[in-house]
Amino acid sequence: MSRSSSLLRLTVAIDLAFCTLAFIPQAHAKVYQNPQEFSSSSNSSFDFVVVGGGTAGSVVANRLSENPQYNVLLLEAGPNNEGILELIVPGLHIQIPYDWNYTTAPQAMVNNRSFDYRRGFVLGGSSSVNSMLSTRGSKDDYDLWGRVSGDPRTWSWEALQKWILKSETWTATVGGRDPTGQYDPQYHGKDGPIRVSLTGSGPDDFDRRASRNTEIQKEFVEKLDSNDGSPPGLLLMNFYFLAHSVDEEAALRQWQDNRTGPFAEWRQVGRRILWSKIPKSSPILNQYGDPASGPNSPHLEIPLGPAGPTMVASVVLLTPHSRGTVKLASSNPFDDPLIDPGYLSHPFDIQALTEGIRITKRWLDSPAWDGLVTGFLGPDPDNTTLSETAFQNALKESVASFLHPVGTAAMSASSSAAGVVDHELRVKGVHVLRVVDASAIPYVPTTHTQAAVYTLAERAADIIKSSWK
Is 221 known to sit in a ligand binding site? Predict the structure, then answer.
């Protein structure tokens, strides 16, 4: 078997530190825990076989099985996720065994470092092993799908509204937080299987300080993310650590009964997320072109959070020019794939991260933070004692993966020689085979990918139903 490869697009991040003073509902479904159980089943004929019970596969199998005339087989290599606390409580997924444990190839432009490449090895896939933050991204992201696929009537923000809302149910905020003015009901679902809510705590002193940073309004638009497709220039969210003093058994019972209590909050305290655009006047956009999905989409995500006496800011590049590959290692399907993300292989990326550091520094250097931010730790492009080479080496040593990979089976127009699947997610040149997961998304969304994958899968399920009539 010849080795095959596909393009990979990922986000990369760099951590900085600032010193501070202070789906699948199982209606008419049967779960087989092992092949022996399945082989003894009387059902040996299926209308649809869904390979991979991940974020998208679970959605597609669930929606197809809504038709009682269809027999649907969903195959997942990992175990059932039912009842596993670390997989159902936000933020408890770190260092658990439900992972494929992939490792990337050494990255030449990141000082030959290799990276863990986490992928969910469990029903639910990577949706079972993430922090459960629901962010949709920009309208521009979805409109780009329409342009690339050649089918904006199917793939665009306006065309996808039904399917964007279909997977979710908006629920009351845990902890009694007043959501007034912080979300728009028309942009949230009412009867989907995924429950979405604001976090339990509302705006605090951090948020008010952020709003007072008027000197850089053009970089940080003062707007909470209402998931309405408009750019979330500045998104502020609160999270909490799960305190060690919590009665875990009581908290677990409360969580299982009604999804409230301490387990309902992400376990990291004081977290905020900012999004920012690189200024239009930046030389790197003139030199390399603007990779953003549209004029209202950010280039950078900047999560903020505490780490002892410091505040850590992770500058995440959402719009890399670099591309990677995934290749078969051999003809043995059980061998791990060869994953080469190509981190920083395009000069734009390291310059964009550098710009992101400067944007973050400017934001925290504004008057609202006087007396709180006392210094900066990390690779500093403004440190005159460092040569450019020394700075870039320091940055490369600090780079980490933010995952959210897409594009290895990218969607494109039927007539295009590029891409793997067409506008209906059919593999080009292959009969009755579709790819429905994050690999079909042609460019990294300017957000966390889970909500976008739910939308893709919901739309795909209806496309498949329509073609099967």
Answer: yes
